[in-house]
Amino acid sequence: QAQLVESGGGLVRPGGSLKLSCASSEFTLDYLSIGWFRQAPGKEREGVSCISASDGSTYYADSVKGRFTISRDYAKNMVYLHMNGLQPEDTGTYSCAADLDNNYYNAAYYCTTGNALDAWGQGTLVSVSS
Of 17, 22, 114, 123, which sits with the fewest C-beta atoms within 10 Å of its C-beta? Predict the structure, then answer.
């Protein structure tokens, strides 16, 4: 059973927007470092955006800088990935992950290595096509 649950994926035209949500009924996400990863068919998993609970840093892959934003909703115990200006190359399954051990890493570490993230969701599919 997935420990995190993603939602918000769907089919969108190029230039469109989506907001992905990461939720958990087991953990308080406010205090955890969270990452968003995506995997396109035939490609390796990529760290898209991460937020560190230890130093508050955020990280964005070069391919999404200026278009995607990661944020927390403390009241709803959720983490969002706001995606604007979507392009066909953004197509893939997007998963969120959490560091349950609260290791003291910055956001870039989580996203570029995928290490120390031990709770994962099953993913939500984002398709960008005209």
Answer: 17
Whether residue 2 is predicted with pLDDT greater than 90 in this model: the reply is no
| 117, pLDDT greater than 70 | yes
Helix, strand, coil shares of the chain, percent, nearest 5, are 10, 45, 45
Query: Residue 80: is its pLDDT beyond 70?
Result: yes
Alpha carbon distance 6, 120 (integer Å): 10
Contact, 74 vs 30, CB < 8 A?
yes
Give Cβ neighbours of residue 63 (< 8 Å, ≥ 6 apart): 46, 89
| C-alpha closest to that of 94 among 129, 70, 62 | 70
Q: What is the pLDDT of residue 102?
A: 85
- In this structure, are residues 47 and 65 in contact, taking their beta carbons and an 8 Å threshold? no
β pairing state of 68-73 and 78-83? antiparallel
* C-alpha–C-alpha distance, residues 15 and 77, integer Å: 29
- pLDDT for res 88: 97
